[in-house]
Every structure is written in structure tokens, then in C-alpha cells.
Amino acid sequence: MQQSRTSAPAVVGALRAQAERLCFVTNAWGAEPRARLAQLLLEKSGFEGGRVFFTLGGADANEHAVKFARQVSGKPHGWVITRERSYHGASYAAMALSGDARTSAQADAAAYRVLHVPPPYAYRCPFPAGDDAACGRAAAEHIAAVIDSLATVALRGMGQELAGEESSVAGMQRYRLPARPPAVDGGVAAHHRRQRHARHL
Length: 201
Ligand SMILES: Cc1ncc(COP(=O)(O)O)c(C=O)c1O
What we know:
Elements: H1 2-21, H2 32-45, H3 58-73, E1 80-83, H4 92-97, E2 114-117, H5 132-156, H6 188-199
Parallel strand pairs: 1-2
Helix pairs in contact: 5-6
The structure holds pyridoxal-5'-phosphate.
């Protein structure tokens, strides 16, 4: 409380001055104070050549982060891996990203192409590991295995609807795998189809 009392006048003064000048600019428009703040953030973070995107809050930021990652990687339906026991916000996509028992029934993670993996929680490590470092390594190896499994799923699922076999992918037991297409092996066309689909993983 003490700190907010001493710092508040400067903050309140700046808020008042800005509100008197211009109190709202939609995200689609540029604004000078926003540009200045972006510049400051880039300088402080040392993110040379970076760009800043302002969001409304945490859930919004996470949704945009996923969107940007999918856009940049050219994988519009790319899978996102997050931790069990995590909180990413209260919007539907953020609930799907969250590994949170309180909201897991409200958003089907697999429908949002989200997989949850156990965290390297050394106090009660979910992997058989002797110490903290081993727990961290085991968690990282698990993520690597999940990524490999997803690549396999993408190859197996070419052009198929979501139906059929149960998944063998660690952490996505509720996700129903596409049935294996009849002509998945052999042939140049099949190879190109596989590559095309893998790009959309
Ligand atoms: C790690 C993390 N991500 C996301 C959020 C969601 O932020 P917001 O409530 O601003 O949407 C929170 C909020 O506590 C958070 O702690």
C-alpha cells in the first residue's frame, strides 16, 4: 500500500494528462504514446528488430501468441503443448491451453489442438527421476516424444476425418486419431500428400 501511495500521483497524473489529450485509440490504429512504449520495451528487452503487439490482458496475449506462432510457422492447425497444472486465462482457447482441473470440462483441449504434458515438478516428479535435474531432463524428453508422436499422427492422418482408432500419443488419450488411409505408403503423390500434411501439423 505504501508503495502505491507514493508512486500513484505520477501514474495518475500521466493517466489524466493522456486522457485529456486522447483517451482511446482502437488497436487497429497507431498512437504516439503506444509507439513510444513499444520503443522503450524493445530497448529494455534488447529485442533488436523486434515488434510489439499490445493486448488487453493475459488470455488475449496467449491467444495472439498461439495465432502468431501458427501464422509464422505456416501451420494454421498446429498443435500447442502446454503444461498440466498451468493457468493461461479464462477465454475458451485460454482454458484449453490451461492444464487446470477447474475448467478442463468447459473447453476440450484436443479440439483446440492443445496437448498437456506433465511439468518438471521436482517435489513430486511425475517421472521416475532421482533429482531435480533428472526430473527436468525426463520432462523435456517426454515433450520430445510427444512432438515425435504428433508428427507420426500427422502422417497417418492425411486427409482423413477425425474418427477411428484411439490415440497412442502420450498425453492425448482423449483425442481420436484419424483412421489410417488405405494408400499411405509408396508413390510420389502419397509422398507429396504426406509432406503437405506434415507442413500443417
Ligand atoms: C500465467 C498467466 N497467464 C494468463 C493469465 C490471464 O490473464 P488475464 O486475467 O489478464 O486474462 C494469468 C492471470 O492470472 C496468468 O497468471
